[in-house]
């Protein structure tokens, strides 16, 4: 028996995941027939749509995670800035005193 589509003798109903249908088709034409069927193409399109939806969900979750991490880093940076400002404010009287002493020494050496 040969394939009705391509005249091949490679008809193996028991191999390659065949379900027993398409008795007059070789293995290649059997799977090509399934791939060309409207139902299979619709399933493929739906699968592609679902994959895109899942990818978008993953991207949204990843973006949310990145934004959360960046906000945390920004808060930490703001806290460091506040600490530096506070340290500078605490140093101001000392620096004013140092500047006055240096100015007085400069006047003496003149």
Walk me through what this model shows.
The protein is an all-alpha fold. It has 2 domains: 1-36, no CATH class; 49-109. The chain has 2 helices and no strands. It has helices at residues 27-36, 38-109. The longest helix is centred in the last third of the chain and has 72 residues, at 38-109. The chain is rod-shaped. The N and C termini lie far apart (118 Å). The model has no long low-confidence stretch (mean pLDDT 85).
SSE topology sketch:
Elements: H1 27-36, H2 38-109
Number of helical segments with 4 or more residues: 2
- Termini, distance in Å? 118 Å
What is the average of the pLDDT values? 85
- The SS-based structural class is mainly alpha
Task: For this entry, give a set of tags.
110 residues, rod-shaped, 2 domains, mainly alpha, 2 helices
In short:
With 110 residues, this protein is mostly helical. The chain contains two helices and no strands.
């Amino acid at each position: 028996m040969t394939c009705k589509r391509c005249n091949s003798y490679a008809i193996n109903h028991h191999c390659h995941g065949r379900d027993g249908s398409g008795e007059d088709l070789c293995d290649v034409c059997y799977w090509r027939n399934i791939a060309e069927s409207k139902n299979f193409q619709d399933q493929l399109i739906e699968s592609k749509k679902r994959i895109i939806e899942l990818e978008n969900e993953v991207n949204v979750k990843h973006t949310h995670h990145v934004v959360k991490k960046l906000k945390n880093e920004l808060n930490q940076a703001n806290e460091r800035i506040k600490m530096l400002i506070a340290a500078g404010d605490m140093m101001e009287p000392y620096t004013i005193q140092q500047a006055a002493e240096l100015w007085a020494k400069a006047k003496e050496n003149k």
